[in-house]
Amino acid sequence: QVQLVESGGGLVQAGGSLRLSCAAPRITFSVYAMGWYRQVPGKQRELVAQITHNSVTNYADSVKGRFTISRDNTKSTVYLQMNSLKAEDTAVYYCNANWRSGRLDYWGQGTQVTVSS
């Protein structure tokens, strides 16, 4: 069974930083596009950042300049460095692994990020 294991969420004050990690040891990590999504109650899950298998990145406008996605293929892990956090960044953050536009698609269990203002 494929598992994506997220860690690093928590409570932080506005202006602070957190780093999320997502380990995916049971997939051929290097060929997957990896992404971070977030969801708040009553709203759809939205893309935060994405990194392709060859490390091309893409960000939601709301996080550009504040968040950085990166990957370490030797550790089968993707990271999301979140700086200058705002209250509106509060959400459950989910890790996603995607191969060939959804032919294989896996999700983590989610990690809560709460930013206090």
Plain-language structure description:
This protein is an all-beta fold and about 120 residues long. About 0% of the residues lie in helices and about 50% in strands. It is built from no helices and eleven strands. Strands 2, 4, 5, 6, 9, 10 and 11 form a seven-stranded mixed beta sheet that branches. The protein has a four-stranded antiparallel beta sheet with strand order 1-3-8-7, with no helix packed on it. It is globular and about 40 Å long.
Count helical runs.
0
Unreliable stretches (pLDDT < 50, length at least 5) are: none
User: Termini, distance in Å?
Assistant: 39 Å
Pattern of helices and strands: EEEEEEEEEEE
Strand content: over 45%
Helix content: under 10%
What's the total count of β strands?
Answer: 11
Based on the model shown, name its key terms:
single chain, 117 residues, mainly beta, 7-stranded mixed beta sheet, 4-stranded antiparallel beta sheet, 11 strands
SSE inventory with pairings:
Blueprint: E1 5-7, E2 10-13, E3 18-23, E4 33-39, E5 46-51, E6 57-59, E7 67-72, E8 77-82, E9 91-99, E10 104-107, E11 111-116
Parallel strand pairs: 2-11
Antiparallel strand pairs: 1-3, 3-8, 4-5, 4-9, 5-6, 7-8, 9-10, 9-11
Short account of what is shown:
By secondary structure, the protein is mainly β. The chain contains no helices and eleven strands. The strands form two sheets. Strands 2, 4, 5, 6, 9, 10 and 11 form a seven-stranded mixed β-sheet that branches. It has a four-stranded antiparallel β-sheet with strand order 1-3-8-7, with no helix packed on it.
